[in-house]
Amino acid sequence: MKPGDEITVNAFGFDKKLKRSWKCLVTGIEGNALTLVGEFKEKVEHPELGTIEAGTMSTEYFWLDRWYNIFRLTSPTDQLKCWYCNITMPPEISDNSLDYIDLDIDIVIWPDGTHQVLDEAEFEENAGRFQYSDEILKSVRTAMDTILSDLRLGKPPFER
Length: 160
Description:
The structure is a single chain. By secondary structure, the chain is of the alpha+beta class. It contains 2 helices and 11 strands; from the N terminus they run E-E-E-E-E-E-E-E-E-E-E-H-H. It has a 7-stranded mixed barrel. The chain has a two-stranded antiparallel ribbon with strand order 4-5. A hairpin with a 5-residue loop joins strand 10 and strand 11. The longest helix has 20 residues, at 134-153. The radius of gyration is 15 Å and the shape is globular. The chain starts with 5 loop residues before the first strand and ends in a 7-residue tail after the last helix.
């Protein structure tokens, strides 16, 4: 995999069932960090984010050793809509795909820096249903703390 390659991103549930899949362009690889860019081809109505217009761009940041990924969503007119932070198990990559286990809890960060934790009930339900280990529960908490700390400090990719 190298910059300029098109890859498929696959988000799986903890039960290994495919939740969603989309195509992206690899725009950067630095150490264990990967940057991708994707485009929403159709309008999407999201319960928390509202309308995501067709043409919205998603700059996606993945790290092979982190329990989260971050999507920077910009409108078709290049205005920041939000950062959407998925709490996940570290991804695995192959020649033409990036796969990760989505742990359901997310953080949305609005352009003014305010944030909201999403899907806590779904996370708690699945933690019990799938008997998440103490390591998973600790990693989720650490990931959330790291994201919010990086936001407060204005670390990449949270520059405004």
